[in-house]
Amino acid sequence: MNPKLYLLTYGCQMNEYDSSKMADVLGKSHGFERTLVPEEADVLLINTCSVREKAQEKVFSELGRWREWKQARPGRVIGVGGCVASQEGEQISARAPHVDLVFGPQTLHRLPELLDQNRRTARPAVDISFPEIEKFDRLPEPRAEGPTAFVSIMEGCSKYCTFCIVPYTRGPEVSRPLDGVLVEIAQLAEQGVREVTLLGQNVNAYRGPMGNNSGEFCDLALLIGYVARIPGIERIRYTTSHPAEFTDALIDAFGDEPKLASYLHLPVQSGSDRILGMMKRGYTRAQFVDKIRRVKAARPGLSLSTDFIVGFPSESEDDFARTLDLIDECEFDSAYSFVYSARPGTPAANLRDLVPPELKQQRLQQLQARIRVHDDAFKQRLVGTVQSVLVERPSRRGGGQMTGKTSSNRSVNFDAPPGLAGQFVDVSITEMTTNSLRGVRV
Ligand code: SAM
Ligand code: F3S
């Protein structure tokens, strides 16, 4: 019988992607199969996130619970990967001695060796280095799971926003060579993938080496053009991108490339220039608004998503009012919003944080309510239109319904046979619900 692997993932889409790669490498090297039941597992891995304090604290309470799991059967192995591992390194085994493997986001491909080393030495195996691009060369061939797939095109971040831990835990920006990206996407397309999301902490910093040491580099706008030419690929998304490097070429791509989905995630963080400056984001509100105005002109009907941090140290009523006002000005129809969380080792952690916690929560709710207004308006505008929907899977609601996404990243439920999964169908949108849309096939 094949050994079983249980994987717990915290954090962002990058982490989801990395977790699937952990399963792939251990499947290839040791024949591991994934299980959703921890009691069945021989190896438990937790892929961690340290972007906010809460996520980090959850890791240690989870590890506490796993001690008994390990004692229940000799030979069981516990591994901690991701950004908390990268940040804490050996400290993890000191605080939780039953942890056997500690590896960072850039060393997950070395899991097979770390597992063997741990079994050989009976000591924790730790590797949290940043061996640049080696990770991509060592990953097994991609496996499609349905008609959509994520493809990592770059790793790390070199922006050093004053609040953010990522540059310290994931290392500097490193782009994957163009050929490797295109080959992976072609392999996925052959397996039935129709939509790819190009993934990275800052995909618009992508500078993929081209050809054999030609010294030339491919940027994200050019990459989108190449991906669009891969047979079978009909829709392209990317996430996440930084406003300072959201270039004219990327704006033009929304006008010129029909395969580029009508959805843009561009994290702004705040509407106040004072706070943007303190965050070292590298753009002003006016520069951001100008880019949004131009991209919306290039692609009417574009869905616009962003990230916000509320309660950054010293954020005043006036700063926050500017953020609310920016939501209306740009009409963001979706957003990930967070209360500021001081991350040890980042410059902002040294600032005096005088915004009371209740006020931060209040602002968060106010902000989310404002986004909901624009989300509802966006969905309402889709009612009565016909949308091209990529059918993904049976709807969780059952009842013979299938679910898929519009180009603008909205989920739609409609009556259809399961055999339609993986195809684009035209759906007339009849109704909006809190989180999705309903429609009928035309
Ligand atoms: N590359 C993206 C950008 O251009 O901003 C962001 C990637 S970051 C890992 C994801 C989001 O986490 C950020 O946009 C920010 O809103 C949030 N975040 C990062 N550090 C945070 C902190 N210390 N407290 C609260 N939220 C934070
Ligand atoms: Fe973090 Fe800023 Fe990079 S939010 S991931 S340091 S762009």
Write the layout of secondary structure elements.
Layout (H helix, E strand, L loop, with lengths): L3 E6 L3 H18 L2 E2 L8 E6 L4 H20 L4 E5 H7 L2 H5 L5 E3 L7 H11 L3 E3 L6 H5 L9 E5 L1 E2 L10 H5 L3 E2 L2 H13 L4 E5 L8 E2 L7 E2 L1 H9 L6 E5 L8 H9 L6 E3 L7 H7 L5 H14 L4 E8 L6 H14 L3 E6 L17 H26 L3 E9 L6 E5 L5 E5 L8 E9 L4 E5 L1
Parallel strand pairs: 1-2, 1-3, 3-4, 4-5, 5-6, 7-10, 10-13, 14-15, 15-16, 19-21
Antiparallel strand pairs: 8-9, 11-12, 17-18, 17-20, 18-19, 20-21
The structure holds S-adenosylmethionine and FE3-S4 cluster.
Defining traits:
442 residues; alpha/beta; Rossmann fold; OB fold (Dihydrolipoamide Acetyltransferase, E2P); six-stranded parallel beta sheet; five-stranded mixed barrel; 21 strands; binds S-adenosylmethionine; binds FE3-S4 cluster
CATH level 1 class label of the largest domain: Alpha Beta
**Ligands bound, unique:** S-adenosylmethionine, FE3-S4 cluster
| Strand residue percentage | 15-25%
The CATH homologous superfamily of the largest domain: tm_1862 like domain
Distance between the termini: 48 Å
Largest sheet properties: 6 strands, parallel
Q: Please tally the helical runs, counting DSSP H or I stretches of 4 or more residues.
A: 14
Rg (C-alpha, Å): 22 Å
CATH topology of the largest domain: pyruvate-formate lyase- activating enzyme
Mean pLDDT: 94
Task: Kindly describe this structure.
- This protein has 442 residues and is an alpha/beta fold.
- It folds into three domains: 4-127, Methylthiotransferase, N-terminal domain (Rossmann fold, 3-Layer(aba) Sandwich); 134-381, tm_1862 like domain (pyruvate-formate lyase- activating enzyme), CATH 3.80.30; 383-441, Nucleic acid-binding proteins (OB fold (Dihydrolipoamide Acetyltransferase, E2P)).
- The protein has helices spanning 13-30, 53-72, 82-88, 91-95, 111-121, 134-138, 166-170, 178-190, 220-228, 248-256, 273-279, 285-298, 317-330, 357-382, and strands at 4-9, 33-34, 43-48, 77-81, 101-103, 125-127, 148-152, 154-155, 174-175, 195-199, 208-209, 217-218, 235-239, 263-265, 303-310, 334-339, 386-394, 401-405, 411-415, 424-432, 437-441.
- Strand 5 (101-103), helix 5 and strand 6 (125-127) form a beta-alpha-beta unit.
- Helix 10 (248-256) runs parallel beside helix 12 (285-298) and helix 13 runs parallel beside helix 14 (357-382).
- The structure holds S-adenosylmethionine (SAM) and FE3-S4 cluster.
- S-adenosylmethionine is lined by residues 51-52, 163-164, 166, 201-202, 240, 242, 267, 269, 307, 309, 338, 340-341, 343.
